[in-house]
Amino acid sequence: MSTFSDGLPQPPSASRSVPPADWTDWEAANRANWDERVPVHVGGAFYDVPAFVAGAEVLRDFELAEVGDVAGKRLLHLQCHIGLDTLSWARRGALVTGLDFSEPALVEAAQLAKQLGVDSARFVASDVYGAVEALGGETFDVVYTGMGALNWLPDLTRWARTVAALVRPGGFAYLSEFHPIAELVAADGRTVVEDYFDRAPAVLDTPGSYADRNATMTATRTVQWRHGIGDVVSALADSGLHLDFLHEHAHGHFFLPPGPRLPLVYSLRASRPY
């Protein structure tokens, strides 16, 4: 497994390279890749959109318990992709806004909202760092970020300050994310194959998508970053948010062989004082 594989085992054909001298086009490369993933994800079995439309739950049990009742609350989902998690919160009564840098993904999210009859949902095109401006300084009761999001962002300090600016006084930010420890081990679940403290950007050329490795895609180059849990917590603390909890979970995404358990995902909540 690898941090730089969207949270899923990388195929042998995926390659990681030393960052080139100039990788400043990281956002354009990543956006092109995510734009091409949209039809693969909407039409494939991995996301199973028909099952979602029929009522399937995509949020994890610990997310539902830790976020709590969202009825009537204004919830912002950062890096929302095609909006399944976003609209899951809407089903529970939240007034949702989804934000993502992929416009094709937002088109699908909006169409899905219309299909579900969720009139209150809205979707805004922006990268995370431009969210405050894109939303006109609006603040929210809950700012939610789901799995496989932070590895696409180079600057956690800027991310945390953006999140803090989006949380209203008395509100909170909530993050559920792949655990960096679990992402460093091989498929045997025991052998460490990557360096936890490596913070250099990884430039990858990976065929297809984690949802379908055989999908035909041309924009296969991505740039990703590894962030330790200490990096995330420190960035949020520096932003002025108050850490309510940090939980590690032995379930939630990965599947490892039987044996001593590792943390597979983690979740945290950070609130903004009145």
From TrEMBL:
InterPro entries: Methyltransf_12 (IPR013217), SAM-dependent_MTases_sf (IPR029063). Gene3D superfamilies: Vaccinia Virus protein VP39. Residues 76-172 form the Methyltransferase type domain. Keywords: Methyltransferase, Transferase. CDD domains: AdoMet_MTases (cd02440). Coiled coil: none annotated. Residues 1-21 are annotated as: Disordered. The keyword Methyltransferase applies. This is Methyltransferase type 12. It comes from Kitasatospora griseola.
